[in-house]
Amino acid sequence: MKNFNRIWVGMLMLALLTFSCQKFEVLNKDPNNLNPSDAAPDYLMASVLTSTAMDYGNLGSGIISGAVQHSAQDAWSSTYSNYDWGTSDWSGIYGRLRNNQVLLQKAQANNLKFQQGVALVMRAFNFGYIADFWGDAPYTAALKGDLDGAANQYPAFDSQETIYNGVIADLKAAVPLFAGTASSHPEITPATQSSDVFYKGDNEKWARLANSLLLRYYLRISAKRDVKADVEAIASKVLTSNGDDFTMSFPGIDGNTSYQKNTAFGGASNFKRNKMSATLVTKLIDLKDPRLVIMAEPIVIRSIVDASKFTAAADAAKISMVVGGIRYINPTAAAAANITQFNQSTYSADRGWAKPIDAVKSFYDTTPVYVGIPISYFGETFNYNLNGTGGQANSNNDFVSYLRVDIYSKNSGNLLKQRLASYNEVCFDLAEAALKGWSVGGTAETWYNKGVKSSFDLWTVFSSYQSSVNGYAGCVKSADAYLAQSSVAYNSTLSRIIEQKWIASWQASVESYMDWRRTGLPTLNVGYAAKRAAIPLRFAYNNTELQSNVASTTAAINKLEESSYIGSDGKNSPWSKFWLLQGTGKPW
After folding, report:
1. What is the pTM of this model?
2. pLDDT of residue 355
């Protein structure tokens, strides 16, 4: 615990940094606080690693989880479930990159190869983060705000392509720095191992991570460039098991070091407003997928359509009533009130604004065990499934599935980790590469099956949670039985690979979002409360950049391609296309 405390205190150093590209005129030095330039490389490394994990990990279990429809949010749902994305601030990422720059410089000056390698990987990861979500951005002229000259204070934006080239170059440069056995790296001290919250100073795992991130980015740009030879060259040098996953555990000692949906520091209401998406729940039920029991809580009160319960004159006009712990629905009264039963085909047909908002007052779902909330259903969805007790301050809805309480309400736990890259992602990436006909050490089917099985193993659905699986009578009871189903078995299509990769990325949704954006898979529809009739593609440049670095930001915006969904946003819209998507016809 002392080591965890030491590592996480390192995050406080971020407050000392410049969080923009402009220079400080005056730097006050507080003798009670440590300046990053005075910090030991390992301490800097801890700060960079923990802050990256928290930022990127929270994105993957937060707003992007809503974007790819893993989870839904009722009460204050506009950003999360209705895609009302405003402008987004990248200053925290650049602040972290400034810390990382100091780490790299110190490591180079002292010939600390391991720390140099980590700094290059983290520079690639964080600049990749910026390019992935914003597009063009300061890169070659970034992190120089403390130098003289207006060009450093207001840097030009590099193209998204240039940043991706830099990301790939950094990852390639990092790999040889990790070469050799642990004994050939005397710079990996006990302090280094303590500060490395991902791999505890394991240089070989860092090398495999760097290659796995290369694989990720090669596929990211594969529609714009021939990367076949690049992928084939690293296919045998990537993560090899779930034990290699790029994950960080939560210490859980306060709100800043705990899983973001916990009840201890966030409150019960904060936890309850995060619920399962109908898109994911429906798919898992269709596939008899036992991972559902790890993600979701069974509904508290079942719903059954039964007209016989409403024969009494006093009950004839009631739409529903709870008797003996079961909620009965009156089909006649529901039809009269223009309330229809939810199903996936009805929801999909209602894509965009196909109907006015008041065309259907509410859906109801009589799924026996698990029920999810449709994305962008009403704007504020706490009344979904005929719930009459929800509200902004309440978020109680016993007729839909919460996230599993004994896992996701906790501060920390074995299944609660910030997951930034994983073995199952690598397996599905190699399956996609093999499907393209590339030589990657196995067939597409082999890698696909490995990806599914590694996800099952990761979520321990057939070990510590066996009793829950048995309680879900509709699910299969083994990975082999799951893969034997015609709806799951490998069928030589990219859609089958991406679908399973999407499911496996639960609580780490960023890569699924990137996959959807470049392939259009899986098919994700939006409801009629969405801000626009499609999922956004990028983060819009923040007002700080728009106002202070006008020329560079304007030049970057002018390179964006408008889509039919931008509305009144102008080019700096979450629905505009940047270089990565231009000319690909994806995702729409």
Report:
1. 0.92
2. 54
